[in-house]
Amino acid sequence: MRFVQRMKGVWKCVRFLPVVLCVLYFVSPSLKYFVKYIHMERCSLKSAKDLILDNRVDASLDLVSRDDVQTCTYWRAPIIWEGMFDPEIYDETHKKKGSSVALVVFAVGRYLDAYLNTFLNSSERYFMLDLPVTYYVFTDRPAKVPPLKLPPHRSMKVMKVEKHARWQDISMMRMKTISDAIETDIKHRCTYVFCFDVDQEFTGRFGSEALGDSVALLHTYFFNLPKMLYTYDHNPKSKAYMETGDLYYHAAVFGGTWESVKALVDACHQGIMEDKRNRVEALWHDESHLNKYLWIHKPSRVLSPEYCWDPLSGKNSVVQVQRLVWAPKQYKKLRAP
Questions:
Q1: For the chain, how long is the longest CA-to-CA vector?
Q2: 127: which strand partners?
Q3: Residues 6 or more apart from 82 whose CB is under 8 A from it?
Q4: What integer pLDDT is reported at residue 13 of this predicted model?
Q5: CA separation (Å) from 37 to 32, 34, 135?
Q6: What pLDDT is attached to residue 329?
Q7: Are 107 and 138 contacting, i.e. CB atoms less than 8 angstroms apart?
Q8: Cβ contacts of residue 95 below 8 Å, gap of 6+?
Q9: What pLDDT does residue 333 have?
Q10: Cα gap 197→244, rounded to integer Å
Q11: What 3-state DSSP class applies to 239?
């Protein structure tokens, strides 16, 4: 019995070791000093013509223009950074294709009052400006959604959702809501879907270069760290369990064609519900399940941290543009019962 208890204690330590190491990294100046000398991997391709090319315009990407960062993955997906692309070429290509985008955002409880107005107004200044966009705002208080003056090619649909008691459940259960919206409405209107957390603000172009079949985002706090610090879920009882992975993705932004996004959210919802039946909760909730899915089903396009940056993390020379930034977090106030 003592041996079993001891082994359980050891397992708990192993499971949470990456989290502990991350905490040490963020609070220890000396550890940060050494980690900064661990260089990111580099793209092994010399020409963008060797990429997956889920869009022909990707052949125009300049993979060697940024020798300070990783511009492609080993499975030949581009990682989009400032200086790699010509925005006009991308915009013209997608306009000719007739691309259209659904922007999905949840504003439940106090998050509506704190963030939604800034999020929506900033998106009108920077998000996919040359393309038709439909905003899908999911909230428990539709009457409180601020009015938004929109041009003819952009529209907004406000849809009511249930407010769960725990913020973790709000975060996780959005997967089923997104799937239902795609099936009943989005797939009949839009070719692409992008899902965002509401506590963010657009501060620069977030354009058609971000569109692809399956789109993931490198996390601000992990993109230049060694894999041993990635906080995947290491509990084998969870469907989000991963021993290791390729990259660490942030669930605050993900997208793709409506077909690929539906496949992702359906798989994540299934994993979350299986965990609930087994009385398990993944370490980082829906983000853990998203990372598991994208490890098995590789994204065809990866966005650099330019596309979702936390200003509190400080300046980083490789992040030349901040296109979307984290708003100041008010967790104690917003997540209070």
A1: 70
A2: 206
A3: 66, 304, 306, 320, 321
A4: 44
A5: 9, 6, 42
A6: 77
A7: yes
A8: 130, 131
A9: 57
A10: 26
A11: coil
Q: Read off the tokens for 59.
A: 């052949």
Q: Please tell me the predicted confidence (pLDDT) of residue 33.
A: 45
Distance in angstroms (rounded) separating the CA atoms of residues 171 and 167: 6
pLDDT digits (tens, 9 = 90+) for 151-199: 999 999 999 997 655 545 555 578 999 999 999 999 999 999 999 999 9
Residue type, 231: T
- The tens digit of pLDDT for each residue in 258-305 reads 999 999 999 999 999 999 999 999 999 899 999 999 999 999 999 999
Cα separation, 11 vs 160, in Å, equals 42
The amino acid occupying position 42 is R
Distance in angstroms (rounded) separating the CA atoms of residues 253 and 248: 13
User: Considering the chain, what percentage of its residues have pLDDT values greater than 70?
Assistant: 83
Q: Which of 266, 226, 231, 267 is nearest to 250 (CA)?
A: 231
Residue 72 tokens read as: 């492609």
- The amino acid present at 52, given as its one-letter code, is I
d(CA 321, CA 271) in angstroms, rounded, equals: 35
Letter for the amino acid at 141?
R
177/265 Cα distance (integer angstroms): 9
